[in-house]
Amino acid sequence: MATPSIQLNDGTSIPWLAFGSGTALYSKDATKQITDAIKAGFRHIDAAQAYSNEETVGDGIVQSGVPRSELYITTKLGKVPDGKTVKDTLQESLKKLQTDYVDLFLIHTPVQHADLKSTWKELEELKAEGLTRSIGVSNFLPKHFNIILEGATVVPAVNQIEYHPYVFKASQPQIDLHKQHKIVATSYGGLTPITRFPGGPIDPALDRAAKRLAEASGKSVTQGQVLQLWLRKKDIPCITVTSKAERLREYLSVAELPDLTEEEEREIDESGSTAHHRVFVRASPVTSYLI
Ligand SMILES: NC(=O)c1ccc[n+]([C@@H]2O[C@H](COP(=O)([O-])OP(=O)(O)OC[C@H]3O[C@@H](n4cnc5c(N)ncnc54)[C@H](OP(=O)(O)O)[C@@H]3O)[C@@H](O)[C@H]2O)c1
């Protein structure tokens, strides 16, 4: 069964499951992992200028042999070097990624741009020029949206954020704003509750859902797959990564599993709300405002 796609507010759609080239692959040669992920069935690749490996992501894409037209490629704007424009940086990214356009170009973090409004204007121009099909943001809080939305001709299609049950409650103001403007949240760090905080309050709910889904599907179902189904139930694309072939299959086979029930979703929401663990901001001074 094919991985589903989610509609964006600009008329395009985004594949629900993405393979990321940050975190585990940050600053590393990602060629083999990207080729393997695409060959296994991933069609959405998440890159960033800040990951310092866009060349190898491009090599991995080319070596997969899958036509560009069948892939969805995201990259993200880093800090713009003095004397350069946002367009200069995207053109460099396109050269490294060996493509004429990206599907989605995001502002990686608002605090790296002194004049956020004019940075957004530059992204709007890049969309008009066809260098990117969609534009969006990452790690934005409502106060950052308020800056760019006033006078915007394009509303961001996406806000890529850390999203899992242990930030479910804290993220509600962002999610409410997204709903108002038909902005899609996409999730990184979605497996945090099992990779970094195992044994927490959501584990009984994950186990109950995994057992019910295994009985319903006749397949074994992991806690990680339940977390990814929790994202899918909320129409939130999942950006993940792995170094292991068997985990690629585990992620891709979520497409064959039934949805969580409303009750299972609510149980994870409620038990997740009893704890707060945000991971990706601690290590980085540029995102420490998110805690
Ligand atoms: N916009 C931003 O600021 C931002 C920030 C962070 C990340 N991202 C993007 O999101 C992507 C994914 O980020 P993420 O690493 O946080 O994704 P994630 O889906 O939360 O975690 C994936 C990691 O979990 C491990 N894992 C999976 N199942 C496991 C299990 N059952 N037990 C133990 N370990 C398990 C995998 O390791 P194995 O190799 O062992 O499978 C992999 O390293 C990044 O590559 C990047 O593209 C964006």
UniProtKB/TrEMBL annotation:
UniProt-annotated site: Lowers pKa of active site Tyr, residues: K76
Entry keyword set: NADP, Oxidoreductase
Pfam families assigned: Aldo_ket_red
Gene3D superfamilies for this protein: NADP-dependent oxidoreductase domain (3.20.20.100)
Domain NADP-dependent oxidoreductase: from-to ranges: 23-270
Residues that bind substrate: H108
The organism's place on the tree of life at top rank: Eukaryota
Alphabetized CDD domains for the sequence: AKR_AKR3C2-3
PROSITE patterns assigned: ALDOKETO_REDUCTASE_1, ALDOKETO_REDUCTASE_2
Active-site residue list: Y51
Molecular function, one GO term: oxidoreductase activity, acting on the CH-OH group of donors, NAD or NADP as acceptor
Family statement: Belongs to the aldo/keto reductase family.
UniProt protein name: NADP-dependent oxidoreductase domain-containing protein
Organism annotation: Hermanssonia centrifuga
